[in-house]
Amino acid sequence: MAVTALATLVPALAPATASAAAPAAPAAADPLKPYLQQKPRWQRCDAESPAAFQCATVKVPLDYSRPGGKKIGIAISRMKASSARERRGALLLNPGGPGGEGLGMPLFLASELPTAVKKRYDLVGFDPRGVGQSSPVSCGLTDDERNWQRPYKSATFAKDVQWARTVAAKCEARGGDKLRHLTTRNTARDMDVIRSVLGEKKISYLGYSYGTYLGAVYTQMFPRRADRFVLDSAVDPQRVWRGMIQVWAEGAEPAFTRWSEWTARRAATYQLGDTPAAVRKTFWDLVAQADRKPIDFEGTPLTGDDIRAGRAVFFSVREAAESVAALKKAAEGTRPAPATRSPRSTPPPAPPAFGRAVPPDNGEASFWAVVCADSRSWPRDPEQYRRDAIRDKARYPLYGDFASNIMPCAFWKNGSEPATTVDNKVGALILQNEWDSQTPLTSGQGLHRALKGSRMVTVAGGEGHGIYGSKSCADKTATAYLTTGRLPAKDLTCQAAAGREQGALRLPVPTPPGIPGMHGRF
Asked: Residues near 324 by Cβ (< 8 Å), separated by ≥ 6?
């Protein structure tokens, strides 16, 4: 039930024959009032961070349909606007996930966002429910159980099914009823509690990756409380969630084709082939060789499946060419020279003095909790996953079987309520790189269709996941919207700067953290 519905009481009607109006029934007490009127006790997050970086904890119901029941804590942080005179309100931040810790986001983005934005907004971070410092969940998973990138093979499928069943069972045993309530809808309700305790009538928002879906759900549930929303590197709400994993395989094929064409034009530099077909053959020959005998690559033995699992690298053509060239030298027994890479910003971890130790599998546990509980469209029959994996490996050779193979959600209990249908006219600005490995262009276009009041800025040729704050050509439009409230009159396309990687923010992506092959080289 939505928060607004919990506070609504339809007054009794007076009898039609009454000569005078009956006294109005006393208004029912709002069961959420104690949460909405909390006064956070701000404190310095840790001794190493600036004194202006403050943290607090607010309480929310585990189950919003039973606000008097069990409570959980949500860790929040802030850095106040630098200009009291120009301050507009609070800008709530989410880095992505599900499972991404956001408590350190104000400190991270304070060095990335333009001064005009920092003058007008308190930067507010939070760890979503079940994540980091916000009542973190754990399933007690082993290292092998945490690795969910499993290619389909007929000989190992039964083992994969058992893995998925085991993960679901261990999470159920550890998390119990709590897992049912770790949903995007409840996190959106938590955001509205945060808005209220901050004293804001409306909230502005900057969400990356999974944070775009969270923001979109908030606009659907609380449209009158959404102020200026920037949704960066967007999730398609129609594909939540199995379809968003499968879109990685779909998006990898055109990225791989683009890379092979780019690399062929630089044959003298990378020596991988002078035609796209020759470049592709070099790569697939390396995969076949690694399947016969793992290739020792920078001290790690890689199988062909390990190499395919690194599909995200192909969205950055230069980095992919360097990586495959280094892999080729390793396969020939030559020690490659270290590749040169552009430095990337990394969000700081949760402040140690404020926080407590987080279970090592918290990223995976919270990821599965949201991904499985949000949607009731996961197939229950393991054979459906087998059929889909066989089909998609043929369609999308690079990653199709990984994306469609069995997942723990096949054995997960339903979440507390169905997923949200996103379909509204709330204003929002969507930013999207053309070559994004985690939320491909088609995904951003899907969110744009669902949010009919939105405008979209596409960075043509843009590479990477996460745009705003990376000095992208889209930054100017986002800053203008946050500072003036004016959306562009129409959708825009700008050109990525030549010779420089776009979307250089190292932000959590919509997968569990720590999975091999998701960033950089294989």
From this structure: 263, 270, 272, 282, 283, 286
- Active-site residue, selected from the candidate residues 323, 436, 437, 472: 436
Distance of CA 177 to the CA centre of its chain: 24
Query: Which residue in 181, 232, 392, 465 is the catalytic one?
Result: 465
CA angle 220/488/236 to nearest 5° reads 40
Distance CA 280, CA 260 (A): 6
Catalytic residue among 209, 316, 366, 437: 209
Give burial (CB, 10 Å; 0-12/13-18/19+) of 44.
Answer: middle
**Is 94 within 8 Å of 120 (Cβ atoms)?**
no
Helices 210-221 and 184-197: angle between axes, nearest 10 degrees: 70
What's the token pair of residue 329? 């030298």
Per the annotation, the verdict on 209 as an active-site residue is: yes
Contact between 45 and 55 under an 8 Å Cβ cutoff? The reply is yes
* Per-residue burial over 324-334, b = 16 or more CB atoms within 10 Å of its CB, e = otherwise: bbbbbebbeee
Rounded CA-CA distance 56/186 in Å is 20
DSSP label at 489?
A: S
C-alpha dist (Å) from residue 417 to 222, 374, 490, 502: 17, 8, 36, 38
Measured from the Cβ of residue 468, the count of other Cβ atoms closer than 10 Å reads: 28
Is 470 a known active-site residue? no
What are the pLDDT tens digits along the chain (522 aa)?
A: 333 332 322 222 223 333 334 455 555 678 999 999 999 999 999 888 899 999 999 999 999 999 999 999 999 999 999 999 999 999 999 999 999 999 999 999 999 999 999 999 999 999 999 999 999 999 999 999 999 999 999 999 999 999 999 999 999 999 988 999 999 999 999 999 999 999 999 999 999 999 999 999 999 999 999 999 999 999 999 999 999 999 999 999 999 999 999 999 999 999 999 999 999 999 999 999 999 999 999 999 999 999 999 999 999 999 999 999 999 999 999 765 555 544 444 555 545 546 688 999 999 999 999 999 999 999 999 999 999 999 999 999 999 999 999 999 999 999 999 999 999 999 999 999 999 999 999 999 999 999 999 999 999 999 999 999 999 999 999 999 999 999 999 999 999 987 544 445 655 444 443 333 433 456
Question: Which of 389, 311, 400 is closest to 154 using CA atoms?
Answer: 389
Instruction: Give the DSSP letter string of 239-300.
Output: GTTHHHHHHHHHHHHHHHHHHHHHHHTTHHHH-S-SSHHHHHHHHHHHHHHHHHS-EEETTE
Q: Which of 229, 498, 521, 210 is nearest to 363 (CA)?
A: 210
Cα–Cα distance, 487 to 522 (Å, whole number): 40
For the record, the structure tokens of 69 come out as: 């029941």
Q: What is the dihedral of CA 401, 402, 405, 406, to 10 degrees?
A: 170
Handedness of CA 413, 375, 72, 363 (dihedral sign): positive
